[in-house]
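Quick illustration, no need to memorize.
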Amino acid sequence: MSINLLNYDGKGLVDFCTEIGEKPFRARQLLRWIHQFGIVDFDLMSDLAKGLREKLATRAVIELPLIMSDYAAADGTHKWLLSVGAGNGIETVFIPEANRGTLCVSSQVGCALACTFCSTGKQGFNRNLTVAEIIGQLWIANKMLGTCGDATKPQTRKAVTNVVMMGMGEPLANFENVVTALDLMLDDHAYGLSRRRVTVSTSGLVPAIDRLRERCPVALAVSLHAPNDALRDQLVPINKKYPIRELLAACQRYLPAAPRDFITFEYVMLDGVNDSVSHARELVKLVQDIPCKFNLIPFNSFSDSGYKRSSTEAVKMFRDVLMHAELVTTVRKTRGDDIAAACGQLAGQVKDKTHRSARLKVETTQ
């Protein structure tokens, strides 16, 4: 069986080259051809010896997820639905802005954490993505946006300047594959992104936050969504295993290694659930000892969610309480809503093998 080279970071490619009797510097060449030039045909890798190209053709492939559909929103947001086999699909979203382009990358087919306000969480978990399926999303985005070089010219303009692991799935539940993909994003011979421009978002897997700090400390975002355990238990069930006190302690431990001097707390605004002024004041007390910023996220509706988006006035009052306490606070602008690419809407063609959606419908009607 041929080996998919997209599953290897720099170290993995060095090991592969050694196994086939090649010098370690060939790994750097392969990285540049695959990730900077966007080349998947070994015959086009002109600075590789003919014998090596023939050897690669018999032993390896560069195999990417297949593009099933490409949606473009009125605001310039792109959403790609990618096939990862067995009828499963994942979604990747590119969000262009004036001074940067952010790619939202998926890490799993579905999600097991079942956050109640997330469409992906309601569809159940199928499997972890491979390294090739994770980094392939960045490769495809660069290719589709026309930023890869060709066989004679290197990449000169980057549409994707930032990557956020905020797509389908919980990144830290697929730790090894996600971290290997992060290594490729940061490698100067591959994508050359800085740690400050790569963000991993987690719902609160405390041991994995500690592992990330030791292994690959990129920017960290935590899906908080509630100021106390009783409410967070309802919205983010993993809180029952790793309650807020343990989660915030992990954030404190992460900060000395973080590329930024703060943790981002994400907070989805749910009408009448977690959006009152008293909730905001409770948050202020909760995070008073942690350098942080808040990203308030207007809830993006989906079928049978059971929630409504907070009013503009409620969001403003909530934000003002945080800002009055000198907490940096932004309200996320909804992007790609017309193509269901907004935060919390990524569900794609996920097969609900757990039948969670059906169970939830029964429970809500009883």
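DSSP finds eleven helices and 14 strands in the chain.
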